[in-house]
Design goal:
By secondary structure, the protein is α/β, with parallel strands linked by helices. The chain folds into 2 domains: about 160 residues, Rossmann fold (3-Layer(aba) Sandwich), CATH 3.40.50.11190; about 160 residues, Rossmann fold. The chain contains 12 helices and 13 strands. The strands form 2 sheets. A 7-stranded parallel β-sheet has the order 3-2-1-4-5-6-7, sandwiched between helices. Helix 1 crosses helix 12 and helix 5 packs parallel to helix 6. It starts with a strand and ends with a helix. The model has no long low-confidence stretch (mean pLDDT about 95).
Length: about 325
């Protein structure tokens, strides 16, 4: 059972990584049930997995009552919780009823779960301090991205700013950098919670050959065609890394700085800054990425080295082990 949220406030990352784990669970013979507070149109992102609408965000008092009732009706299996604001006592309360795992982006020692997953680069620093799955070896990247890295003749520039793109950096990139992309296909993605898609459409008219893709379930088919990406600093950067795409990243929200920094330190992406971007710096950095094959190659190689293989099957194995260990 997966409990997470998605939409304008939470983004798509929590749902996306839970779906990747759910796919691996099903491949191992399990069944996945999703409990999600989200707009109904986001249900498609869960694919064929069973979907239950939750009335409120994860961790609220009414949600705890709701989940307790659900757990009593479905007495078997493991619960996976993924929400950036969920409280420790919420996890403790659910763990009293069911083996519980939690996906976190910060210190895993702050969780009360029986299994804690932090798959960000640098999380390995907490090794040996608890029942943790740590670092990129436990990534939740779908297998198609790794296969995309083997594709040849990839020339497109992919612009993707996540599910909501609060500062409309998609339009910003097209307006201020679009002329640099001359001679390459340009692919612009508009997320399902984007507040002003018309502005993106308008900016794209001034960049010849730009394709607009609205709310694709994933970016695999687009990654297969792309050599360069300009992306928000969310977990999409990990998917692009696995696909061997040289990426320049923008921290469209403050928390994304913590995801960008470890990749930049390892030479696995090119940071462009936060929401208040310098046009001059961005043009120089992206211009170098476009014109210097060696730079692109070095970034792509460092990125692939961080994410060499899918990690969701390893998480699925650990979830089954947690279930077996706690039910004996």
């Amino acid at each position: 059972m997966f409990r997470c949220d998605a939409g304008a406030d939470h983004g798509l990352g929590h749902l996306s990584r839970c779906v990747a784990i759910a796919d691996a669970v099903v491949a191992r013979g399990g069944v996945a049930h999703f409990y999600v507070h989200a707009d109904d149109h986001l249900r498609a992102f869960a694919g064929r997995h069973e979907w239950h609408a939750a009335a409120s965000d994860t961790g609220m008092a009414c949600d705890l009552t709701f989940m307790r009732d659900e757990l009593k009706r479905k007495p078997d299996g493991v619960l996976v919780v993924d929400n950036k604001r969920v409280a420790k006592d919420y996890v403790s309360a659910l763990r009293a009823l069911r083996p519980t795992a939690q996906i976190v982006d910060g210190d895993p020692r702050d969780s009360a779960a029986g299994l804690v997953i932090n798959n960000h680069p640098g999380a390995e620093a907490f090794a040996g301090q608890g029942p943790f799955l740590l670092g990129p070896g436990y990534n939740t990247i779908r297998p198609g991205y790794f296969a995309a890295a083997e594709k040849s003749d990839r020339r497109a520039v992919l612009i993707t700013m996540g599910g909501e793109d609060p500062g409309n950096h998609t339009a910003w990139v097209l307006r201020h950098l679009g002329d640099l992309f001359a001679g390459r296909p340009v692919i612009a993605v508009i997320g399902p919670a984007h507040s002003d898609p018309d502005a993106v459409e308008a900016a794209a008219k001034d960049v010849p050959g730009t394709e607009i893709h609205r709310a694709p379930r994933d970016l695999v088919a687009l990654a297969e065609r792309s050599e360069i990406a300009i992306s928000a600093g969310g977990t999409t950067c990990y998917e692009l890394a696995a696909a061997g795409i040289a990426t320049a990243a923008i921290a469209t929200e403050p928390h994304q700085q913590a995801l960008i920094a470890p990749l930049a330190e390892r030479g696995a992406l090119l940071p462009l800054g936060d929401g208040d971007l310098s046009i001059e710096f961005a043009r120089s950095a992206v211009g170098n990425l476009l014109t210097q094959p060696a730079l692109r190659g070095n970034i792509a190689a460092a990125a692939r080295a961080l994410f060499p293989a899918p990690g969701a099957p390893r998480i699925a194995d650990a979830l089954f082990e947690l279930s077996e260990r706690t039910t004996k």
